Amino acid sequence: MITSPSSVRRSERSRRATLDAALELCTEKGYGRVTVEAIAARAGVSKKTIYRWWPSKGAVMLEAFAEAFVGATPFVDTGDIAADLRTHINAAVRVVSTPPYGPAYAGILSEMHHDDDLARAVLEQLVGPRVEAAVGRLRRAQEQGQVPAGADLPLAVEMLYGPVYYRHVLRRPAQDEATVAALVSHVLRSLVTGDDAAPAGTRDDAPAQG
């Protein structure tokens, strides 16, 4: 089972060098051609040191990606849930669609289908906490009356992230800001039910048609 590396026993300088080396090599060679030996040589650490801190290449890549992704995609709260979701999703799109993080995450998503330990680590260290944070932001919007009380918040998160992953995994062009705005608007409208519902395209936050 993949566990989080110990931050007590390892040198931060060596950790950073290892993560940076993994990302650089992934961009240069492609995820599948990167080896732990190559990461160790580029980082100036021993292969034994890497295996003492991480159980696999995938675990190294996951820590490198997750650290960057979480830092670049905070769930801000300006009081405007639509604006905040646009900010968040646009940042997520930028991270997963540009080197070095995009190639690394594409490799991780592919490898996790053949590595149960890595799959669990992705869910525990990245996906689970990000979904929880997204649901928490939507819940605050719900408390502020911006999201209906009966809305299915976990489903809303899947609707927001699903198109991002779809394009990333199938290597389709990433969403631009207008597409993200349309996505956020559509998801928020879909959460409105009953007497509060308005026909699509009639609400103030509907994207302009060009």
TrEMBL record:
Q: Where along the sequence lies the DNA-binding region?
A: 35-54
Q: Which of UniProt's keywords are assigned here?
A: DNA-binding, Transcription, Transcription regulation
The record's SUPFAM superfamilies line, in alphabetical order, gives: Homeodomain-like (SSF46689), Tetracyclin repressor-like, C-terminal domain (SSF48498)
HTH tetR-type domain sequence ranges: 12-72
Native source species: Streptomyces mutomycini
Q: What is this protein called?
A: TetR/AcrR family transcriptional regulator
The record's annotation in InterPro entries points to:
Homeodomain-like_sf, HTH-type_TetR-like_transc_reg, HTH_TetR, Tet_transcr_reg_TetR-rel_C_sf, TetR_C
Recorded hits in Gene3D superfamilies, A to Z, give: Homeodomain-like (1.10.10.60), Tetracycline Repressor, domain 2 (1.10.357.10)
